[in-house]
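= Protein in question =
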Amino acid sequence: MAVLVGDPRPRSRVHRAALGVRDVLTAALVAAERPAVAGQVVDAVDLAPVLFDPAGARVVTDELESLALADVLVIASPTLRATYSGLLKALLDHAPPGLLASVVAVPLMVAASPRHAMAVDLHLRPLLTELGASVPGRGLALVESDVDTGAHRAAVHRWLTGVVPDLVGLLDARRRLGERYEAGRTVRTARPAYE
C-alpha cells in the first residue's frame, strides 16, 4: 500500500492524515484476510524542483511508475480553491496513460471547513479514474482542525466501514485479472501478494 501526498507544504497535516489512513486501511485489509503492507510514500513537494524541468521528467515518471506497482494507493491533497492542489495536478500530468489501471486508489482531501467535503468526489476522484484507477466507495474528506486534534480518527473509521467491502471486492477482482502497470503499459501477470 503506497501513499502520494500532493501538499505544497512538506510533512504537512495532509501527510500525517494520509499515513494514518494508510495504517487504518492496512489493518482493515489484514483483518479481512487480505494481507497488506505499508509501502512507498511520495511527498510531491520533494519532486517540485524537477517537476517543471524537462531534464527531470524521467525522475518524476519513475516515481509515478513505482507508485503504480502498489495494489492500493492513498492519494492525498489539501483542498485549495475548492479542489486538489496544483502541485498534485502538475505531478499527475506526468503520468503515462493508464498509469493507475492496476491500482485501487483511495482519494483523501483535507479542508479548512466541512463545506468543502464534496471536492474529493467532484474533483479528485475523476482525476484518478481518468488515470485508470478503481476508486472504492466515496472519497474521504477530513477537516484540518480535526487532523490537528486527532478527532479525524472517528471520521476515518466511519468512512472505512462503508468502503472496506468495495475495497476488498476491487482488490479481489484486480487480483483475478492479474493486471499490472509496467513500463508504460498494462500487462496481465500473476500477482503473488498484496502490496
